[in-house]
Design goal:
- This protein has 144 residues and is mainly alpha-helical.
- It contains six helices and no strands.
Length: 144
Amino acid sequence: MKRSHVLFDVAALVVYLLAANPALTGIPLHEFIGLGAFIVVAAHVVVSADGLGGRGRMGRLALNAVLLLSLAACVVSGVMVSGTVLPSMGLYASGYHFWDPLHAVAAKVMLAALLVHVVVRGPAALAVLRRRKDLCGEGGDCPA
C-alpha cells in the first residue's frame, strides 16, 4: 500500500461522508456529491484491486461484494428518486415508493459495511502513514 493510495482513500472517505449527510449539504448538493462519490469510490476499487489477495481473502471478497452491491443499489435508487439530477436533464422517474425505501436501506447497509471496511483496513493505512512519518523524522527531511 502506497502513501498516495492511503491519502486518496482518505479523500474518498471524506467525499463519501459529505454525500452521506444530506442534512448537512441539502438535497441538491447531496445528489451531485453522491454522483461524485460514486466516481471516487469506483476509482478506489480500481486502485485497490490488488488488495484482494492474502489472508482473509474470502472475508474481504464478501465485504467488497456487499460494499459494491450496496453502492450500486444506492446510486441507482438515488438517481431514480432524484429531485435535482434527473430534472436537470429533463427526466423524471416513477416508482418513488419503491426506490426511496431501497435507497434508505442500501445507504444503511453501505454505511455498516464501510465501517467494517475501515476497521479492517484502517490499521494497514495508519501503518503506511506512520512509516512515512518515521522516515521523515522531526525535522521534515524526507527522502524523495
